[in-house]
Amino acid sequence: MNCDTLFMIGTSFPYAEWLPDEGSVRGVQIDIDGRMIGIRYPMEAHVVGDAKESLKALLPLLDPKQDRSWREKIEKDVRTWDRILEDRAAQHFDGVVNPQTVAAELSPRLSEGCILTAGSGSATNWWARYLKLRKGMRASLSGTLATMGPGVPYAIGARFAFPDRPVIAFVGDGAFQMNGMAEMITVKRYADRLGGSPPLVFCVFNNQDLNQVTWEQRAMGGDPKFPGSQDIPDVPYARYAELLGLRGIYCDQQDKVGAAWDRALAGETPVVLEFKVDREIPPIPPHIMYEQGKKAAKAAVRDPELAGMAVRGFRQKLAEFYEQLPGRDQAAR
């Protein structure tokens, strides 16, 4: 939001509330599909083409700035945000796993060339925040339609296409109940082609809640959780995988998350890795819009999970304030 020029490269960025006010800054967009240019923000310069090749052509035309203060501020903010994420992932509540820990523990274990897929629930928030992609990795999710349930079929397709690369899917229990469990029969049917090394892992976040929508209703609509539409049955996903002849790993202990990942990534049989995670951990953005905060507070007053939300939200936000204290950046380096 704080810029003099908005440069969008190969993205349609659907979150318009984080963009500058229309007309307040200049706009440049590169996209291989000309229909996508200008749909989020009015652009002065339209570049239709491959992002990599377009940038190669444009870079010689740019004059580097000698004043690096703005870049240094961004670098400092990124370091601060990384520490905030680390602090939040270390928090633990009420005998279930912090979902942030699941993603935080996987990231340093990712091997070169791995393929990552995700659904469209709250698990995808942690997937996007914590997994550090490196050169050679690929990541896929339903970024345009936010379709429920693509993580498992994406992973199966990736494994068929790239049998020599590790494939890891992040899926919520709602999506896994919708189509993932049936697709495990597909995995069993083609086990001779989908199994073997490197691993094929389906990581299921079991919180018995359609969690993304629950939090969107709170923050966007000011509505408390309605259990009748949001709660879903507790299904033993790991044991279901074992019933089919696949591997199943279950973890409900915070200090065993890393070990669970090590087991999942070490085997040659496709595995369902089930984590019993905390559904009251709020997917707090780095900046909360006033209206969102007001609506969330309104919802919380009448929400059946008020107590847990309040404690978790306070501690998660406290980690952010702590890392932004004067001198923390130098002390952490």
TrEMBL record:
Residues 2-58 form the Thiamine pyrophosphate enzyme central domain. Coiled coil: none annotated. Keywords: Thiamine pyrophosphate. It holds the Pfam family TPP_enzyme_M. It comes from the Bacteria. Gene3D superfamilies: 3.40.50.970, TPP-binding domain. One of its GO terms (molecular function) is catalytic activity. The keyword Oxidoreductase does not apply. Residues 120-275 form the Thiamine pyrophosphate enzyme TPP-binding domain. Belongs to the TPP enzyme family. This is Thiamine pyrophosphate-requiring protein.
